[in-house]
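Recap for those who missed Tuesday's class. We walked through two folding examples back to back. For each one, the amino acid string is listed first and its predicted C-alpha cells come directly after. Nothing is annotated here on purpose, so try labeling regions yourself before you check the end of the notes.
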Amino acid sequence: MKKILFLLFLSAMGLFGCGNKKSQKIERELFSFGTYIKITVYDEDSKKAEKAIEAAFKEIERVDNKLNTKKNGSIIDQINSSKDKKIKLDSEGKEIFTKVKELYEVSGEKYDITISPLMEVWGFTTNGSEKIPSKSEIDKALSKVDYSKVSVKDDYLIFEEPVEKIDTGSFLKGYAISRAKVLMEDMGIKSAFITSISSIETIGTKPGTKKWRIGLQNPSDPSKMLDVVNLDDKAMGVSGDYQTFVEIEGKRYHHILDVETGYPVADKKMVVVICEDAFTADLLSTAFFSMPIKEILKYVEDKKNVDVFIVDSDSKITTSTGFNYFLKK
C-alpha cells in the first residue's frame, strides 16, 4: 500500500511570509495518525504560542489514543475485538457517533464505517493483495457491512449481527484537529494553521489580514498543482483517488470503496469540502465521494457554510455556487 501526500504547501514560494513584524512565527510537528501534523502560529507572545501548540498536540494524541481503530486499547479496538460488541460511551463518543449516523443517512447509506471487512479483502489493512478479490470474497465481506446495525442506546455503542468492526479512519484526523483548534482559541490564539495533510483547520488569518494559502494537487497528475485555496478561519477536507491505494497486477485501486459493488468508487477523482470545522469536512468529503454529484449539490445548496469542489473521473470540475476560494490569477 502506498500513500501520497496531496497538498502542496507553498512556504517555498514565500506565501507563508512573516507579514506583521510584531508577530512571531512558531511552527511545530507531531507524528500521529500515520502522518505528520503541523501547526503554525503567529503571535507576539512566543511562550503563549508554544504552550498552545503543546496543548493542541496533547489533545490530538488524546483523541488518537481514545478513538483510533488501530490503537491497541482504544475504545474502538476494544469493541472491535470483544465478543459482546458493546461498550460504554461518554458524551464525546455519543456526539461523534450521532454525527456519523447522520452522514450515513445523508449519503443514502453509502458512507459506512463498518467497511473494515471490505478493506481487508482488498489489502488496505495489510501489506496489499496479490490479486483482485473474487466475487465470493467481496460478497462475503459486504455481508458484514451495514451501519444500520450500529446504534447508541443507553450510553452504549452496540453492534448487532452481522457487524463485527468499525473503522474511524475516515474522520478521526479531522475531529482531532478540530478539537485542537477549539483548545487553541480558548488559549487566546488568533492566528494559526493546523494541517494533517488531507484535513486542515485555520484560526483567523495570517498577520496583516492575509488569508492562508494552500496548494491543491492535480488529481490527474499529483506532481502538479491544480490551484491555490484561500482560507480564512475555515476548515478543509479532501478525499482523492490518488491518496491511498493498492497496486494489483500493475493497476492501482484506491481506498474509497463502494458499499454496493465492493469495488473502488469509479466516477470521481477528488472531492474538496470547505466548512466550519475539519470533523464535518472529513465526514462530508468521504461521504460525498460515494454520492451522485446531483445529490451532493442539492445537499450543499441547502446548507450554510458548506461548499464543495468535485473533479470527476473525466477531470470535469463541478463546484457549489458558493465555492470561491481559489486564488484569483
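Example two. Treat it independently of the first, because the proteins are unrelated.
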Amino acid sequence: MRNLKIIILTTFVLFSASKTAIGQNGNPEDYYYQIPDYPERYTAGATSARIVDGLGFRYYWGTEGLTESDLSYRPSEGARSIEETVDHIVVLTEILYLAVKEETFSGLDLEGLSFEEKRNRTLENIKQASIKLKSSSAEDMEKYDIIFANGTQYPFWNLLNGPIADAINHVGQIISFRRTNDNPYNQNLSVLQGKVKD
C-alpha cells in the first residue's frame, strides 16, 4: 500500500512538472498562457525581455479563440481586417527575432499559411527573442540591430519604439475589433500580473 502511494505521488509530481515545463519551454501556443516569471535582477536584456513577454502574453490571449468571422472583420472599408493585422504582427516579430539573432530581414512570405500557423510562428518568434534577451549583456544589446536587405540598419533602440511597440499597439486593435464583433477575449485575465485570475 505504501509503495502504491509513493508511485501515485511520484506520478503526480512528474505530471505537474512536465505540464509546467511544457507551458514554459514547450509549444509556443502554451508558452504565453501566463507571463514567465521575472528575473531576479534588472539588466538591459532582462528588462527588454519583459517587454517582449508582455507582448507575448497579450498576443496569446488577444488571438486565442478567434473565429473565421473575427478574422475577416474590419471596422471600416479602409481598415485592416483582423487577419491582415495578424499578418502584420508576424512580420514585426520576425524583424525582432532576426535582430536578436543578428540576421538580416529580407521579407516574409505568408502565402498559404493558416491562421494557426501564423499565430504559432508569431508566438515562437516572441518566445525565442525573449529567451535570447534574458541572457544578453549590455554589450550584446549593442549588436542587436535591425538590418534590412536593402542595407538600412537601426540600433536596438529603434526596435523598442518601432516593431515591439507597434506590435503591442496592433494587438490592442485585435482585442478591440473582436469585441466589436461580439467575441471578447478572456475577461479573467490580469495583464498587470500576467495571469489568468482565479
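Answers for example two:
Residues 3-25 have pLDDT under 50 and may be disordered.
Strands lie at 146-147, 153-154, 189-190, 195-196.
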